[in-house]
Amino acid sequence: MEKLEPFFFDRPFGLGTATAPTQIEGYETDNSWYDWAEIPGKIADGSSPLRANEHWVRWKADIDLMAKMGIRYYRLGLEWSRIEPEEGKFDESAVARYREELLYLRKKEIRPLITLHHFSNPSWFEARGAFCSANGSGVFLRYVRYIVTKIEDLCSEYVTLNEPNVYAANGYLFGLWPPGVRSFIRSVSVMSRLAGCHIQAYRIIHEIYENRAVHVGFANHYRIFRAPSEGFLAQIGIKWIEYLFQDGITRFMITGRFSFPFGLPFTFRKGTYCDFIGINYYTRCTMKGLTELPAPPHSDKNDLGWEIYPDGIRMTVQKYYNRYPLPVFITENGTADASDTFRARFLYDHLRTLALDCPYVSRYYHWTFIDNFEWAEGETARFGLVENDFPTQRRTIRQSGRFYSEIIKNNGVTDPMIQEYFPVRDTSETRGADEKD
């Protein structure tokens, strides 16, 4: 059996957790995902974000639980449809509720990283065509300016957009998410518009903060792609997929420079439009054209069948840091493991790689704090350090959650932790059977 070794971070390193508002808050709001969940067959288990974790009213207890676990960094999102329930009409009571949560995080000494858009649109914005509509970008940027001016005294770190590449691919290329469109041209157009929104939002936030410290970035979804063969055409295909899904839009959002097929009816001055590189990393996948093939038979997989490939986080970080030498935040990393049998090892492998091989990574946000409404998978995909019993809303810290707490406490993994969380199994019975054979 492989012997695990202790490891420690030799630098200040922020270990936190992440959530998204539509996935945890519960209670009805008029947004694209509440509407989508009402269409039969769109959510795997027929659930809805209507329930989720009821965090909208249980937020204080959830933050207390984070503090108990030693978590000091929290990436949380703001639900646009609560803040602007009708076009041009902002809800001051919703803003007050978010301010109350941010103030409580400060009291508990938990540092917030605010996500301004995480897949969900107000229903009225979706109905008008969202980011594809006339002045759709302007409508989004109006919301950005409004909410940032309301919370600027309580936070200094922002993610403008979460995974614009996934939003565009699932919503406009494969039709799996709202609005359910299947068009390559539309998906590229949406990605381009979102890239432009990020650049303008970056400028707006820095303008609001003037000379005060603020850090603004975005969080893209990155994968390690591989071809099913070593053939020349297969390898060229993989390079093209990498460019379309992640490389092209990353270059655009960071530098303002774009090339075919991305583009806008206007251009941006070349520059640097982020203060950190946000990386959401989960898996490696094998692609044949635009079709994702099953993970290799003998590879480790999570509950969704995603290959568990820890070295991919190193490969991804090094690739983008070498291209854009900026601070790196792992804004999401986690695994679906309902039985909690391999999440601790997942954490060990990925964090050890970051500690030993990625000195320019300064922040890590585990996805996710608590089991939630996992988009089209509904309540079936369990990513949480904390288990949630949805009918009763009872929270239970998993063994992997306790392991994560100890990593935070010790700034790494100690020998006693390895002995406790990864005990060596007694193989004497197996050896005896082998000897008899």
Helix-strand blueprint:
Layout: E1 7-8, E2 14-18, H1 21-24, H2 32-37, H3 55-68, E3 73-77, H4 80-83, H5 92-107, E4 111-115, H6 123-127, H7 136-151, E5 157-162, H8 164-173, H9 184-209, E6 215-226, H10 232-255, E7 277-288, E8 291-293, H11 311-323, E9 328-333, H12 343-357, E10 361-367, E11 386-389, E12 394-397, H13 399-410, E13 412-413, H14 415-421, H15 428-436
Parallel strand pairs: 2-3, 2-10, 3-4, 4-5, 5-6, 6-7, 7-9, 9-10
Antiparallel strand pairs: 1-13, 7-8, 11-12
Helix pairs in contact: 7-9, 8-9, 9-10
Task: Write up this protein.
It is a single chain. The protein is α/β, with parallel strands linked by helices. It has a single domain, classed as TIM Barrel (Alpha-Beta Barrel). It is 41% helix and 17% strand. It contains 15 helices and 13 strands. The chain has an eight-stranded parallel barrel, surrounded by five helices. A two-stranded antiparallel sheet has the order 1-13. A two-stranded antiparallel ribbon has the order 11-12. The longest helix is centred in the middle third of the chain and has 26 residues, at 184-209. It is globular. Residues 426-437 have low confidence and may be disordered.
Mean pLDDT: 95
Radius of gyration: 22 Å
CATH superfamily: Glycosidases
Count every helix, treating DSSP H or I runs of 4 or more residues as helices. Answer: 15
The N- to C-terminal Cα distance equals 21 Å
Could you spell the SSE succession in H and E letters? EEHHHEHHEHHEHHEHEEHEHEEEHEHH
CATH architecture designation: Alpha-Beta Barrel
Overall 3D shape: globular
Count of domain modules = 1
CATH classification class: Alpha Beta
Class derived from helix and strand content: alpha/beta
Helicity range of the residues?
A: 40-55%
- Beta content: 15-25%
CATH topology: TIM Barrel
Total strand count, please? 13
Sheet having the most strands: 8 strands, parallel, barrel
Poorly predicted runs are: 426-437
